[in-house]
């Protein structure tokens, strides 16, 4: 089984969702493509992506839905 993307968006929202998922004992992998530290002249913020293991999706789905409804 592999990773599935469950979120793509702003870093603050990604951190909130990550915290909720980890509170439910679900391991979250983050991919942050923001290269502002490498190339300071580039000011475009890239979306932060969150991934979980496929087998955790059943447990994560209610947490993700509650998060989406709270936005």
Architecture overview:
It is a single chain. The chain is α+β, with helices and mostly antiparallel strands. The chain has helices spanning 11-23, 57-69, and strands at residues 3-9, 29-32, 48-53. It has a 3-stranded antiparallel beta sheet, covered by helices on one side. It is globular, with a radius of gyration of 13 Å.
Short description:
The chain is α+β, with helices and mostly antiparallel strands. It contains 2 helices and 3 strands, in the order E-H-E-E-H. The mean pLDDT is 88.
Blueprint (SSEs and pairs):
Elements: E1 3-9, H1 11-23, E2 29-32, E3 48-53, H2 57-69
Antiparallel strand pairs: 1-3, 2-3
What average pLDDT do the residues reach? Answer: 88
Number of helices, counting only DSSP H or I runs of 4 residues or more? 2
Derived structural class: alpha+beta
Give the radius of gyration.
Answer: 13 Å
* Residue fraction in strands: 15-25%
What strand line-up does the widest sheet have? 1-3-2
Low-confidence spans: pLDDT under 50, at least 5 residues?
none
Order of SSEs, N→C?
EHEEH
Question: Tags for this entry?
Answer:
single chain, 71 residues, alpha+beta, three-stranded antiparallel β-sheet, 2 helices, 3 strands, 37% helix
């Amino acid at each position: 089984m592999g990773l599935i993307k469950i979120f793509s968006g702003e870093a603050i929202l990604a951190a909130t969702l990550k915290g909720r998922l980890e509170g439910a004992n679900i391991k979250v992998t983050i991919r942050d493509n923001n290269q502002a530290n490498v190339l300071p002249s580039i000011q475009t913020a890239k979306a932060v992506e969150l991934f979980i293991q496929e087998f955790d999706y059943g447990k994560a789905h209610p947490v993700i839905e509650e998060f989406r409804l709270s936005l």
